[in-house]
Each structure stands twice: as structure tokens, then as C-alpha cells.
Description:
Layout: H1 3-24, H2 50-61, E1 64-69, E2 72-78, H3 80-89, E3 96-97, H4 101-107, H5 117-133, H6 139-157, H7 167-182, H8 192-208, H9 211-218, H10 221-225, H11 229-253, H12 263-273, H13 284-315, H14 317-330, H15 346-359, E4 368-369, E5 374-376, E6 379-381, E7 386-390, H16 391-395, H17 438-455, E8 456-460, E9 473-474, E10 478-479, E11 485-489
Parallel strand pairs: 2-7
Antiparallel strand pairs: 1-2, 3-4, 4-7, 5-6, 8-11, 9-10
Helix pairs in contact: 6-7, 6-17, 7-8, 7-13, 8-11, 11-13, 13-15, 13-17
Subcellular location: Endoplasmic reticulum membrane; Microsome membrane
Binding site for heme: 435
GO cellular component, one term: endoplasmic reticulum membrane
Amino acid sequence: MDPLVFLVLCLSCLLLLSLWKQNSGKGNLPPGPTPLPVIGNILQLDLKNISKSLSNLSKVYGPVFTVYFGMKPTVVLHGYEAVKEALIDLGEDFSGRGSFAVAEKVNKGFGIVFSNGKRWKEMRRFSLMTLRNFGMGKRSIEDRVQEEARCLVEELRKTNASPCDPTFILGCAPCNVICSIIFQNRFDYKDQNFLNLLECFNENVRILSSAWIQVCNTFPVFLDYFPGSHNKLFKNVDFLRTYVMKKARKHQASLDINNPRDFIDCFLIKMEQEKHNPQLEFTFENLATTVTDLFGAGTETTSTTLRYALLLLLKHPEVTAKVQEEIDRVVGRHRSPCMQDKSRMPYTDAMVHEVQRYIDLIPTNLPHSVTRDVKFRNYLIPKGTTVLASLTSVLHSDKEFPNPEVFDPGHFLDESGNFKKNDFFMAFSAGKRICVGEGLARMELFLFLTAILQNFTLKSVVNPKDIDTTAVANGFASVPPPYELCFMPV
């Protein structure tokens, strides 16, 4: 057969197969733009800002619609009502982890963030219980965060009020807190191993938020056969996992079953207790992935939020002045801020919430999937279908937040200036897959930011009016633009 004819036949068969799969898989899925064979709706999406594309499509197709990433249908939930109905009211049905090809290749279904079913439930339950046993949500962890806040302030003093990029300094603090829980020790801020770990986390978030990774998630074949930044991401994950495994082996050699020192010890003890279980989930592979998940999630999300917060405070000196006035009045200068102060600092509390709302850190959430065939608003979503919940549509709802594109702590204050809770605040997601470390992250953001503003005046190296706070990447996460500032001791 002529090679050209053979190639045309193969391509025709591929197109027909694609059309058949797309049509046969539809069932009674919500409406959406008509997908093209093989590539789906990829040409109708801005891969640098998927969230914005989904918002535009919702204006045409409503709060629940279907888009095709390649040949896979994905149901999109847009707006508070649809997101709440799925993730909270029908939480169990929407508790699966959806398709995310890059993570699937890296994690192979292990760990806590990208696992499913029984394994996910066991890893999440164990992790939550162990983190609580080591103080998460208690006074003991607050002491650790306060101590780290003091170390952070001392490190910022060493900049001598000179212009500096705060990226790595702000990464050190939350990373040390999670390190103290997982590894029982913290690092010096100049430790090269520590800085290497932080660089891996920082680089991975940038790579995951790139348009290229959106392409790879849509067409997983690229991960195996094409060059690109995904290979650097894989290399970074291998480095992190190797580091964790070295720590685990050292822990194993000095393990005292009756006196666990940290998260790794607890996991090793559980491995020993469960070793005869034929459905064993507590393995070294799950240990390495779970610890890397907690390590990454506990470091990069908080440090990125802190970095974005300082940029917004530079841009809005009037907000900074109000926060510092409240700190002076409630805390003063002669003791460290504590969580008890928060109830008497409504403006500062509102500022922290507004930072998280405004930056919209994980715009489309991590992908969910349905764990069974689900009837949802007169549609039938087949088991295993990926679901994207647009957190942007909730956090930037113009029905709930007047001028949602404006940074304004008043979004979380009532007429009397008291802090007001808001159900639309889903910065940590919602439902069964809500962030495991939410309590710790909230504590860190409040205590680190108040400690910084208690001790320093933030000075921009450019006119505040010229500061651009637009994210430089909006894929997996919203990444703030690079900047410098001066920490002027008060």
C-alpha cells in the first residue's frame, strides 16, 4: 500500500474514533461548545488563563457546562450556587480526584492530593489525625509559628533596609513550620539544602502554571515523547522524593515506637502495625508521596500568598497604614502577635481574607471527579468524569463582592467595622477535598504578616501607582510578578 494512502487511512480512522468516543461518552452531559475531533475545545481556551476562558463560556452556556480537553469531557461548575451544590451538598459524589496527567505520571496514584478511593481516604484520615497530634490547630503549633515569625523578622533585619526580592525569605518561614512537623527540625535560612528544596517548589509552581503544562494535561503523550519544562518538573520531584526517602531511612534506623518524634515516625509505626494487611496502603512509596504532598502544599501556597500580600500592601499604602495602626493599638511593640489578638483586629483579619480572595491562588481548583453516575441539575454525569469548580467565579463574584477586581478589605467588614464571615470565601476549596492544612495556613498568614508589619515599614522601589499586581501566570496557580522592596525597621 502506498505510504501516503496508509497515512490518510490511519488519520481518518483516528478522527472517526475520536468522534465516536466524544459522542458515545456524552450521555446526558451539560451543553457546551462543539468539540473538534481529537483536540476538543482547546482552540477556544486561552491556555495562559483557563479560568478567564471558562468565565466567558459560562456567559453563553450557564453555570454548568461541558468542555473537551482533547477527547476527554470535563464538566465545569461556575458560580457559588453550582460549586456549593456539588462540592458541599453532594460532597461524597464529587469527592474523586479528576484527570491531571502530569500529576498522575509523577504520583502514580499515591499520596494524598492526587489519590482516589480507599487509598485517598486512608491517607487523608491518617494525615489529619497525625497533624492534629503534632499540634495543628492547637497552642503548641502556634508557639512554633510565633518562633518562626521571630526568625523571619530577624532575617528581614539582615537586609539592612536595602532593596531585596522577598521570594526565598518568605518561603523559608512556612517551609520551616511544616519541616518541624514532618522532620522534627527546622533549617537555617542560609542552608543550601534548604534553599535547593525551596527552589524546586518555586520552580514547580511556575512550570505547573504554564500554558505548556495545560497542553501536556490535554495530550499526555507529550509527557513521554516531547522535550519541555515538564522534564524539569519530573527531575525536581525526584530530587524532593529522594530527600524525603533519605530522611525516612534515617528515621527508621533510630525509631522508637513508643515515642514518635514527627510525622515520618508516625507513618513508619503505622507501616509496622499494618505490615500483614493484604490491602496495605502504608508503604514507602505512599510515605514518600504523602510527605512530598504535605511538604509542597504546606510551603508554596502559603509563601506565594505572603509574597502576593506584600505586593498588594505596597500598592495600597492606605491599607498598610490601617493595619499597622491596629497592630500598634492591640498588640503594641513589646510582644509577639498571637491568635487571640485576631478577634480584636477585624481590619487585619479582613485584609488577610481579602488578599486570598483577590489573588485567587488556585483559580480552577484541583480537578474533581464524580465517584458514581450522578444526576445533577437534570444532567447525568457518568462515573469518573472530571469536574472543574471555578473558584474564580466564587471569589470574584460581583453579586457578593462589589467591585470584585478591586483590592478592598471592606469586602469582609460590616457597617460597624466588624469582621464578617462569608460563605463565598473558598480560598481553600470546599467539601471533602478541602485543604488539609487550612488551619495551619490561616494561622501562618495572620501571624507572619502581623509580625512583619509590627516591625517594618514596607517601602516600594517604584511609585506605588506604578506597581502592577497582575499575575504573570494563571494556570495551576496565580503567580505574582517578581518585585523588590525595602524592609525599613520601625
